[in-house]
Design brief:
The chain is mostly helical. The protein has 7 helices and no strands. Helix 3 crosses helix 5.
């Protein structure tokens, strides 16, 4: 597994744990590392994703809500919601990652961790966001 792919997987697991158990992010990170030691590169990027999503959650959730019609963000599966949050953080704040890479990685996470409808749902939402936001940047 590629390093950044592993980092995204770790960030997703931690976001899931933090959301469901209301765990302290630092304690969740430390506990994960004790149980599953990782290469420093993997740790560094997963922390960028985790901290970025947590610090920018209001903006990220607003972006997701804008493109999900008739479906509140709270009604989404926790896994799908957090996959979208990671991808939106990458699309919005990390210019060094091509948007299509972020979208494809999110779809792969959805295939691995979501239900059978998750990949299509994640792809549809991220495609709308990418097309609309990219169009706005070019105006």
């Amino acid at each position: 597994m590629r390093l950044r792919t592993k980092s995204r997987e770790i960030a997703l697991c931690l976001l899931y744990q933090i959301e469901l158990s209301k765990a302290d992010p630092a304690q969740a990170r430390d506990g994960y590392l004790q149980q599953y030691p990782q290469k420093q590169e993997v740790i560094d990027f997963s922390w960028i994703l985790l901290d970025g999503v947590l610090k920018n959650s209001v903006q990220i959730d607003s972006l997701i809500k804008k493109y999900v019609k008739n479906w509140g963000i709270d009604r989404m599966a926790v896994i799908d919601r957090n996959i979208l949050r990671i991808a939106c953080f990458e699309l919005t704040f990390l210019d060094d990652i091509p948007p299509k890479v972020s979208i494809n990685e999110a779809i792969e996470l959805a295939k691995r961790f979501g239900d059978m409808d998750s990949p299509r749902f994640v792809n549809g939402v991220l495609d709308k966001i990418y097309k609309a936001e990219d169009k706005l940047k070019n105006e």
